[in-house]
Amino acid sequence: MKFSVSGRTAATGVVAAAVSTVMLLTTGSTAGAAPAPAVAAPDIPVANVKAHLARLQSIATANGGNRAHGRAGYRASLDYVKGKLDAAGFTTTVQSFRSSGSTGYNLIADWPGGDTDQVVMAGSHLDSVGAGPGINDNGSGSAAVLETALAVSRAGYKPARHLRFAWWGAEELGMVGSRTYVNGLSGANRSKISGYLNFDMIASPNPGYFVYDDDPAIEKTFKDYFTGLNIATEPETEGDGRSDHAPFKNAGIPVGGLFSGADYIKTAAQAGKWGGTSGKAFDPCYHRSCDTSSNIDDTALDRNSDAVAHAVWELSS
């Protein structure tokens, strides 16, 4: 997730590429215990998600300590994710763009079947900042989305609606990759998209449980899930409009997602309901070299990964 002292600045000069339409049905869900979709989502093994994070860490270590846009570590990260998805039966597309003098890449993966006029989409940014490997920001979201996609394949899931997953490039430069995707859609295609789910920093070491308060139906899907786990949530405000949901939202597309906190400070009240340490940042290693594979809270990673899968299954069934 990209921040500055005064907030994120918009990227300019992006050359958009034409891409396929996506569409997400934003159905609601009943309050109370976590609702069960027509076909329940499988448990996402946190060990599998952590294995992806270990691989992203090793890629960063072998490539100058980061996985940033325009550098070898980013392309190696994309190739790793693409290889897993290709082997699992997804149709993958690499979309290129130019930013800051370098070529960037988005990865789009479609699961065969389902109504292609109704596409449930989930995404995350795959790039890090240049200062470090970016394992929480945003290896955590990228790994959870990847493992959810692989769970779709393992289950032989046959959703009513078509499933599409995305890993964005150059988010840290101002959501360049996701802007390229959205700007490349025609007005007619853009109007068919009814929602986008975004996952950016979901395993902060001093975590909070924040739900985007944008589209009410998508928000309710996540909040009901956490209610079923007896976990209180709060509206996500720290990164509002500062991750890859922003281009979709700015185009009038409903969005939703999860977040575990960056450099804002956890209050005593938040520590009282979530644990952790008050007076300390949710992620003290945000945008630093210490954002490594040790900068992860396993419990938050596990809960949020399961919530990703729950929303994908519920909204596509």
What does this structure look like?
With 317 residues, the protein is of the alpha/beta class. Helix content is 35%, strand content 16%. It contains 9 helices and 8 strands. The protein has helices at residues 46-62, 72-87, 135-155, 176-183, 187-191, 216-228, 245-250, 268-274, 298-316; strands spanning 91-99, 102-111, 115-125, 161-168, 196-199, 210-211, 234-235, 255-259. An 8-stranded mixed beta sheet has the order 1-2-4-3-5-8-6-7, with helices on both faces. A hairpin with a 2-residue loop joins strand 1 (91-99) and strand 2. Helix 1 runs antiparallel to helix 2. The chain is globular and about 45 Å long. Mean pLDDT is 89; it is low at 3-37.
How are the elements arranged and paired?
Layout lengths: L45 H17 L9 H16 L3 E9 L2 E10 L3 E11 L9 H21 L5 E8 L7 H8 L3 H5 L4 E4 L10 E2 L4 H13 L5 E2 L9 H6 L4 E5 L8 H7 L23 H19 L1
Parallel strand pairs: 3-4, 3-5, 5-8, 6-7
Antiparallel strand pairs: 1-2, 2-4, 6-8
Helix pairs in contact: 1-2, 1-3, 3-9, 6-9
List keywords for this structure.
317 residues; alpha/beta; eight-stranded mixed beta sheet; 9 helices; 16% strand; globular
- Characterize the biggest β-sheet: 8 strands, mixed
Helix-and-strand structural type: alpha/beta
Calculate the terminal CA-CA distance, rounded to whole Å.
30 Å
Structural shape: globular
Overall pLDDT score: 89
Please give the share of residues in helix.
Answer: 25-40%
Secondary-structure element order, N to C: HHEEEHEHHEEHEHEHH
User: Could you tell me the strand content as a percent range?
Assistant: 15-25%
Radius of gyration: 18 Å
Strand order of the largest sheet: 1-2-4-3-5-8-6-7
- DSSP, total strands: 8
Number of helices: 9
